[in-house]
């Protein structure tokens, strides 16, 4: 969770340097999304809301679009929508993006999408129950909801530092796991998986990860001093084909540490749902 993005999200459209933290997060998330799409034979995707707590806005689903899926996005900021459209046009991949104030209505027919999801975005929804009712109505196969890890060290620190912004701009109750699971259960969706994700060797803190690692004498984990911006857009455009490999150098930590450590260190947690009555093989 990086609370400053509430006010500085526009800056990433001119300075695309997302840093090591968001870059690692994107690659780990891409792997999870691709795995879900392969398993459930996904062709159509809705990301709603598409603005979350990570760097450059509106490109969370770009990897899936590059793999051939048809992607639609929902956002509640018309200026940001225009900027997101420009990003996708730059990558030359098709996109449908729709304005949805307060996210109380998803303007699509029933079961329009195989897969719907969002990342660190549920606290922008005005009414969680209404939103999830709409999301389940529009989705046929699978739903992934990713929320900040509220038991994580980084979340605890940032919540204390940014408590006024949290109260003013966000609805924290929307990311409580018990609220999400209860509503989805009442909507006849079955929770089939929930785990911690995005757990690199640094906490979720509001500073460049290279600086954090240097403080603790771990500069070698961050590699050489960066001179160029670190952005997944360069990977998507073909400029840095080794981008995923560089980020996955840090995955050893997430892969090997036990869940009880992740509970205090991971940046996010996900919940994967399918309609009740569907056979999960």
Low-confidence stretches: none
Helix tally? Answer: 13
- Beta-strand residue fraction: 15-25%
Strands, count: 7
**Overall SS class:** alpha/beta
CATH T-level topology:
Rossmann fold
Defining traits:
alpha/beta, seven-stranded mixed sheet, 13 helices, globular, 17% strand
Describe this protein's structure.
The chain is 39% helix and 17% strand. It is α/β, with parallel strands linked by helices and 281 residues long. It has one domain: Rossmann fold (3-Layer(aba) Sandwich), CATH 3.40.50.150. Strands 3-2-1-4-5-7-6 form a seven-stranded mixed β-sheet, sandwiched between helices. The chain starts with a helix and ends in a 6-residue tail after the last strand.
Please provide a brief summary of the model.
With 281 residues, the protein is α/β, with parallel strands linked by helices.
Blueprint of the fold:
Blueprint: H1 5-8, H2 19-39, E1 44-47, H3 62-66, E2 70-75, H4 78-91, E3 96-99, E4 113-119, H5 128-137, E5 139-148, H6 153-161, H7 163-169, H8 177-186, E6 189-197, H9 209-215, H10 232-236, H11 243-247, H12 251-256, H13 259-265, E7 268-275
Parallel strand pairs: 1-2, 1-4, 2-3, 4-5
Antiparallel strand pairs: 5-7, 6-7
């Amino acid at each position: 969770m990086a609370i400053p993005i509430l006010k500085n999200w526009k800056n990433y459209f001119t300075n695309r340097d997302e840093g090591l933290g968001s870059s690692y997060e994107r690659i780990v998330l891409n792997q999870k999304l691709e795995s879900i799409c392969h398993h459930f034979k996904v062709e159509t995707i809705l990301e709603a809301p598409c603005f979350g707590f990570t760097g450059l806005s509106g490109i969370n689903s770009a990897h899936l679009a590059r793999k051939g899926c048809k992607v639609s996005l929902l956002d509640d900021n018309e200026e940001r929508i225009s900027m997101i459209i420009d990003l996708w046009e730059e990558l030359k991949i098709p996109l449908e993006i729709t304005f949805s104030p307060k996210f109380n209505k998803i303007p699509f027919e029933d079961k329009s999408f195989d897969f719907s999801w969002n990342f660190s975005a549920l606290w922008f929804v005005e009414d969680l129950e209404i939103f999830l009712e709409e999301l389940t109505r529009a989705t046929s196969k699978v739903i992934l909801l990713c929320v900040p890890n509220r038991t994580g060290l980084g979340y605890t620190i940032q919540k204390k530092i940014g408590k006024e912004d949290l109260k003013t701009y966000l609805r924290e109750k929307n990311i409580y796991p018990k609220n999400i699971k209860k509503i989805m259960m009442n909507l006849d969706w079955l929770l089939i998986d929930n785990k911690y994700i995005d757990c690199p060797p640094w906490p979720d803190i509001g500073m460049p990860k290279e600086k954090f690692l240097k403080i603790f004498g771990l500069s070698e984990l961050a590699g050489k001093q960066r001179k160029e911006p670190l952005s997944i857009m360069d990977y998507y455009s073909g400029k840095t084909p080794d981008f995923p490999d560089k980020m996955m150098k840090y995955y050893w930590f997430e892969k090997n540490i036990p869940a009880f450590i992740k509970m205090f260190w991971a940046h996010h947690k996900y919940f994967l749902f399918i309609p009740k009555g569907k056979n999960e093989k």
